[in-house]
Design brief:
By secondary structure, the protein is α/β, with parallel strands linked by helices. Helices cover 39% and strands 14% of the residues. The chain is built from 14 helices and twelve strands. It binds pyridoxal-5'-phosphate (PLP). The site of pyridoxal-5'-phosphate has 17 residues, from helix 4 and helix 5.
């Protein structure tokens, strides 16, 4: 792949498209004020003053490029959006208050009553609510498919399908969807492809290069990576953002706080280092657990025994930092293991510097009926581990100790 996607914006001195990703993440999108600050400024302001009534009029007519109101846009938020845009190689980016605001704004800004959306069944619990409950209430028909099954996508996508939505790798089973194959089917039907790229992070998977149209992030996860702020982002073509997303954000207000955008902007500077270190830790842990007698199954896209290992190599440049595994036994054994951990904390978040463990069947996927969980392969002994930045030997020691204690 070339480092300069055909869709990128014209060069700006603040973020040349030919910089390598690490450089874009440190310098890209910076708007330096008249004080020449090194660290990007936090513009904690709701509004902006105009030099004249004429200027105010021109801004509202979009004839003057300045800011109007922070529900629409804010300089700190713009810096975050531009830095992420440069990393992804998209034409445009808009930030939102949360990842779920990003998912909801991306889909609802584009879809109308009478449209049809097809989504992969294995996904983040709240995304399932948006697709399965909210869309049908608004007259948008929804079909869920097994995202791994190309024939199922072909059968479900029809002339009314305007959007295809999936997450890959998916939470918590780490199932993959073939982005290129599904995008080709969707595009034949005239549908846009929306990819929730949270688990892969922008460092490990570039869905636009495989044919996807709209990329969605919960920046709450790896982009912050230190458990502080909620945030989200949507990236796509200038046309999608101008005609649909920006209007929706401006008028309905899922806008991100400048403070949160500032934290996330600074988070982008260290994203490659953190993701790399977390992936290395995750690989060591996955390999260790795969040989452990108290573990029945390890799911990790970086291992050859992942059911879609070939696809993982084809569309991802790294394994990710989540390891899902099943302890021998059921809920009691899984709870015993979680409760015996000392370094790893019990929390449903992921992508954090701290290693976090969750029991999907009773937390993130508790809302689903047992049959729906079974369909996704979420068994009672299943545990999802988000591997952090601690020392790998300390983490392995903690896991071994807790596995021994739970038996
Ligand atoms: C966390 C998450 C979301 C939602 O993000 P929030 O910032 O918590 O609203 C959406 N999709 C995936 C895959 C996630 O992990």
């Amino acid at each position: 792949m070339t480092s300069k996607p055909a869709t990128s914006k014209p060069e700006t001195p603040s973020g040349p498209a030919e910089w390598a990703p690490a450089t874009r993440l440190v310098h890209g999108g910076t708007l330096r004020s008249q004080f020449g600050e090194t660290s990007e400024a936090l513009f904690l302001t709701q509004g902006y003053v105009y030099e004249s009534a004429e200027q105010a009029e021109a801004r509202f007519k979009n004839e003057d490029p300045g800011y109007q109101y922070s529900r629409f846009a804010n300089p700190t938020v713009s810096m975050f959006e531009e830095r992420l845009r440069l990393l992804e190689g998209a034409e445009a980016c808009r930030a939102t208050a949360t990842g779920m605001a990003a998912v909801t704004a991306a889909l609802l800004s584009y879809l109308s009553a009478g449209d049809h959306v097809v989504a992969a069944r294995a996904m983040f619990g709240s995304c399932r609510y948006v697709i399965e409950d909210l869309c049908p209430r608004l007259g948008i028909a929804a079909t869920l498919v097994d995202g791994r099954d190309i024939e199922a996508w072909k059968a479900a996508i029809g002339p009314n399908t305007r959007a295809v939505f999936f997450e890959t790798p998916a939470n918590p089973t780490l199932d993959l969807v073939d982005i290129a194959a599904v995008s080709a089917i969707a595009h034949d039907a005239g549908a846009l492809v929306f990819v929730d790229n949270v688990f892969a992070t922008p460092m490990l998977q570039r869905p636009l290069e495989h044919g996807a149209d709209v990329i969605i992030y919960s920046a709450t996860k790896h982009i912050d990576g230190q458990g502080r702020c909620l945030g989200g982002a949507v990236l796509g073509t200038q046309k999608f953002v101008d005609d649909h997303l920006s209007v929706f954000i401006r008028q309905t207000g899922p806008s991100i706080s400048p403070f949160n955008a500032w934290v996330l902007l600074k988070g982008l500077e260290t994203l490659p280092l953190r993701v790399k270190a977390q992936c290395e830790n995750a690989r060591r842990i996955a390999d260790h657990l795969a040989d452990h007698p108290a573990i029945t199954k390890v799911l990790f896209p970086g291992r050859d025994d992942h059911p879609q290992a070939e696809l993982a190599r084809r569309q991802m440049t790294g394994s990710g930092q989540v390891v899902t595994f099943s302890v021998n036994g059921g809920k009691a054994e899984a709870f015993g293991f979680l409760n015996a951990l000392q370094i790893v904390k019990i929390s449903n978040n992921l992508g954090d510097a701290k290693s976090l463990v969750t029991h999907p069947a009773t937390t993130t996927h508790q809302r689903l009926k047992p049959e729906a969980r079974a369909e996704l392969g979420i068994i009672d002994g299943m545990v999802r581990l988000s591997v952090g930045l601690e020392d790998a030997d300390d983490l392995i020691g903690d896991l071994d100790r807790a596995l021994a204690a739970s038996r």
